[in-house]
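Protein modeling request. Please complete all fields; requests missing the sequence field cannot be processed.
Requester role: graduate student
Desired output: 3D structure, token encoding
Chains: 1
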Amino acid sequence: MTTTVERSKGVVAGVAAGLLALLALGAYGEAGPRQAVAVLIGGVAGLSLYHASFGFTAAWRRIVTEKRGGGLRAQFVLILLTSVVSFPLIAWGGQLGWPTGGFVFPFGVAAALGAFMFGAGMQLGGGCGSGTLFTAGGGSTRMMITLLAFVFGSVAATAHLHLWGRLPKLPPISLIREFGPHGAFLLTALVLGGLAWLTLRIERRAHGDIAVPRRTGSLVTGPWSPMLGAVMLAIVGIATFIVVGRPWGITSAFALWGAKVFHSVGIPVDSWPYWNWQRGALENSVFRDTTSVMDFGIILGAMFAAALAGRFAPVWRLSQRDVLTAVAGGLLMGYGARLAYGCNIGAYLGGLVSGSLHGWLWLVFGFLGSLAGTRLRLRLGMG
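Delivered output (383 residues):
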């Protein structure tokens, strides 16, 4: 006999799948098949993030508080699997009729501060850019608050970004251009391999052994192992390069959503230098923005995964501390992401799989911010 819980799981899963299909159709109607495919890629990302519990925030925190590095090593696998395809695409895609661009940006004082702010914010908020989306989609009401603050912080930063841009910065440096795709990949693999070895050493010294990774349960209802999550997210990243022509990104859409809301209530965001060259984005349907439709797909994909797993159960009672830290974390992440060219996905992952030096520098300052945020979490009794 079908239980009430099983029926509710089916209803929520059906609603999520239906909304994802409608979103894909809407994107197709506005901008064509590429946008529709981008929605579905986002859906796969949301499902994979949820089933694998693949978060950057918890992995960075665990190496500090528990001396466990499995989550970091899974991130490194994700980066290498994506880079083995993205580096050649960036170098030779144009010659093959498949033009592909990377995220290669300058890095300076503003970006360093932004990465630090983001790192601290993701520990207070309880999730990074991707983590906020998939956790909110999975039914977390606290993360919905974080997401709203994230959006507000993002659009607020666009009002001042032209001023931050005057601070000293290094020029953009592409490892692919400097060393070729093979040399850049070898260098990336060596550095990540060294970091992985360091996490193994830390873990063994603290515990005497390496934690056994979580095994994959059901492919449909989860949970998934971190490595399966890394493989699936690498497929998402590679598909984004192939379909969209650039790395996977998340947070630029948050700034756009906030700007559209501000614009609709009469705040002249179109006069801000950041939006002078993006007036079309403010006036067009959000379905025309690839990052936005992918983000919507992530939320619905995570909702679908949570329903399949029987864990879609929003909690409406939140403590004052939960609300305040969610708001503070979201604001820090939103503002910091705009200063630092994105979040853990767009700047850290997107930078590294583009062979850009700024991705490595983001990692350094983002991790320092995460360390500060972790210490603050402990002081606040958040664990």
